[in-house]
Amino acid sequence: MSEIERIFTCQRCGFCCQGETTVSLDDNDQRQMIQSLNLHREEVMSKYWRITGTIVQMQTVDGHCIFYNQGCLVHAGRPWRCRQWPLHPSILDDEMNFHIIAESCPGIRAEIGYEEFCRLLRRIMADTAKISC
Questions:
Q1: pLDDT tens readout for residues 15-48
Q2: Which of 18, 36, 65, 81 is the most buried (most CB within 10 A)?
């Protein structure tokens, strides 16, 4: 079992894909998504992204990420923020964040308790520049 699997195993339930907003895409996210979709940048921009000034995000459709359809259609090329979720640093700042996220995410191993979860997450974060679940 990996360090991450000791605190989280994605169930691909899609709850984190719900909402009217999505994550911002950095340049690397954009490249990975274009490669994963095997389309030209212009086509990906017009079909899948919402661009506001210099901010690039995935579009939403019917209250969820455009790429969610009983699972992530770009899972291999998903943005780093999607790869990181729900192991976000804010979970270390406030125990209530942990409980709220654990209630909505069946992959969080809440049974290990907040203190152990934080101890393991801090260790993972110290060893990894960008967490990828």
A1: 889 988 888 999 999 999 999 999 999 999 999 9
A2: 65
Residue with tokens 């640093």: 89
What are the distances in angstroms from CA 78 to CA 39, 65, 133? 15, 11, 11
* pTM (two decimals): 0.78
Largest Cα span, the chain? 46
Q: Count of CB atoms within 10 A of residue 105's CB?
A: 17
3-state secondary structure the chain: CCCHHHCECCCCCCHHHECCCCCECCHHHHHHHHHHHCCCHHHHHHHHEEEECCEEEECEECCEECCECCCECCHHHCCHHHHHCCCCCHHHHCHHHHHHHHHHCCCECHHHCHHHHHHHHHHHHHHCCCCCC
Sign of CA dihedral 111, 107, 103, 81: positive
Rounded Cα distance, 111 and 102, in Å: 10
